[in-house]
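Notes from the 1:1 (GR / supervisor)

We went over the backlog. Supervisor wanted to see one worked example end to end before approving the batch request, so GR pasted a single chain during the call. The sequence is below; no edits were made to it. Supervisor asked that the structure be written out right there so they could see what the output format looks like.
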Amino acid sequence: MPHIDYYFATLSPYTYLAGTRMEEVAAKHGATIRYKPLDIMGLFGRTGGTPPPQRHINRQEWRLQEMRRSASKLGMKMNLKPAHWPTNPAPSSYAIIAAQTAGGGDLAGLVHGFVRAVWAEEKDVSDDAVVRAVLEAHGFDGGLADSGMLAGAEEYAANLEEAVEKGVFGAPFYITDSDERFWGQDKIEDLDLYLQGKL
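Structure output shown during the call:
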């Protein structure tokens, strides 16, 4: 059975644009998924990337156009300059880690729920009430927002270290159990083809 490690950030616009398409590909191939939220700004600093606000204006302008075009192609609502970005990604990331451990809800929906909150719903995913509401909307106990925070913090930090070690440099980033690496929501089709044995 194939396996996919999914590295992502709850503040990433491209994680939002990925939707749940990777999960559909995984289901098609019977692949398991391990969700690994990480600190994207920390990842940029460790792997030679530049945070969006510090990029040259040419790159910043292109990024906004590319996000708009991608959202349009996918039929997704997207605020290019959301009210609560950047914000602290830790609370939403810890909640995902706790939910993955607890089980019983829609984990893919939870991940997408957090990024949709940022990029389409003008919500602050560092706010406890928002975190609880997103958890509950996807079948998890809202109390997970408060429990396991130490374990969540440790796993969140470990995810960053592991990502750097395994060659991750952006989000979303997918790594198969054969160490095939795919970066970006526009590479989900390639992941599908690879799992079919066509790449």
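Supervisor's comment: The first helix runs from residue 13 to 18.
Batch request approved.
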